[in-house]
Amino acid sequence: MSKFKALGNGTRQPDTSNLTPSHHKFNQPQTSIKMSDGKKPEVNANLIEQLLKKLAMGEELTEKQRKDMKDYKFWKTQPVAKFDEKIDHEGPIDKPKTPADIPDTPYPMLKEFEWVTMDLDQDEQLSEVHEFLHANYVEDKDSTFRFAYSPEFFEWALKPPGWKKEWHVGVRAKASKKLVAFISAIPAKLRVRSKELQTVEINFLVVHKQLRNKRLAPVLIKEITRRVNKHDIWQALYTAGVVLPSPVTTCRYTHRPLNWPKLYDIGFSGLRPGETKASTVAKYTIGSTTKVAGLRPMKLEDVDEVFELFEKFHERYDIVQKFTKPEFTHWMLGDAQQQKLDIKDKIIVSYVVENPETHKITDFLSFYILPFSVLEDSKYDTLNAAYLFYYATDADFGKGDRFSEEATSALTKRLESLVGDGLVLAKNMDMDVFNALTSQDNVLFLDDLKFGLGDGFLNLYLFNYMTFPIKGGLQENNEFDLVNRSGVGVVML
After folding, report:
1. Which residues, other chains included, contact 308 with Cβ-Cβ below 8 Å and sequence gap of 6+?
2. Tens of pLDDT along 284-334?
3. Residue 262 CA: distances (Å) to CA of 81, 149, 379, 381, 425
């Protein structure tokens, strides 16, 4: 499965006529929604080299291998780091152009179809996008689970401050007027080490299941590229579960069961060697009461203080998103309507720790809710999942270097308590599983809080920007890197 989100600057427009699009899903690897079976994961950065050797020997490639080669041919034409390319500097790859150099008219579309701009301010069109993605978005490789995005989730994910209607791109069939493809972009300012970049995140690229032989995906990619280039934006941050040229970093998914019997029944989790159902249930049993003194839901009036804490905490990472206060408010609290909802109805859940004596906010924790549809199961139709989002704490402030023994000990202890309470909060919201990547400083608490390794990886890429590798919280054997941890401070939906 190819997962592609990229943004060009108009200097290279490859011939993609023979690039066969597949089903596209950004940010979540196809196999990331199951716990690992304990077997050694297959993450092969030398895949293309092996396929080239097979071709040289006259061997036949499988359908999937042919697809991998087509993707590689496409990526070779793009301003991205190539496999095994020596990186000796950081900065843009292609020379900058201007919006005036970019065509004003959309890319040609097959005669049976037409471009449309989806107006997500209109409830009818928002529902149309929701229903289309629900029916056609990625399922796991066994067709057991499918992401169940809601209209409210799209309101949050696709309409942050600065969003642009023309970046919600659809394709309709001319005859029926039905939506058959969709792609979107949102603005994002990044700091990559010491440099700040105005970029976009491109997400939710999907083509109708019955039209994936029409080669619509490459045209969608070029059209969203054109529309964003017209706003003088030339770089992008994107993620994929597959290895493309060439990852800036790789993180691994981990999962903390909150309702193990249900996860076992639907095939999300299995029994590990030497464990019984009873022992596994006992292992993952979690209380219903939080323990951190002063923990409470974040309020609008907390934004200034939490924003300051967040900014200071995230100085430690090599790549982060630089929020404005309105953006921070949107991503951590949702819009005004979301802020009024009961905690069990929220898409984004944020808590703070207020010192009972000084009333200073010392900690911040957030997670978002994204359920799965359970396919072809007679007992369950939904898997409720929470995803760790952003957090910040002052626990290691003033204790020297981030990696010093004193700072590491203080941060580990605090994050275990803070995220441990997050598990309780999620359990009380009837979540079945709590998911987290190996990004941020997560590796410090994943083992002790009984997160299990997932079978999915997330590769992070920068388009039209060369950078030295960034630690993703993994060792070469794909186990947690407790020494170097992670330099990834950005979280993508």
Report:
1. none
2. 999 999 999 999 999 999 999 999 999 999 999 999 999 999 999 999 999
3. 43, 21, 10, 11, 18
Q: What is the mean pLDDT of residues 120-137?
A: 91
| pLDDT at residue 14 tops 60 | no
Q: Hey, do 47-245 and 250-466 end up sharing a CATH topology, with the first three levels equal? A: yes
pLDDT score of 234: 95
Options 158, 365, 446, 493, the catalytic residue: 493
* pTM > 0.85: yes or no: yes
Q: What is the pLDDT of residue 478?
A: 84
Superfamily of domain 47-245: Gcn5-related N-acetyltransferase (GNAT) (3.40.630.30)
The residue ranges of every structural domain in the chain are: 47-245, 250-466
DSSP secondary structure letter of residue 488? B
Q: How far apart are the first and last CA of the chain?
A: 19
3-state SS class at 49: helix
220 is catalytic: no
DSSP one-letter code for 444: G
CA distance readout (Å), 28 to 69, 140, 212, 242: 22, 10, 20, 10
Please report the pLDDT score of residue 140 as a whole number: 52
CATH top-level class for 250-466? alpha beta
Angle at 19 between CA 95 and CA 216, to 5 degrees: 95
Q: Which residue has the tokens 């691994």?
A: 252
Backbone phi, psi, residue 321, to 5°: -95, 130
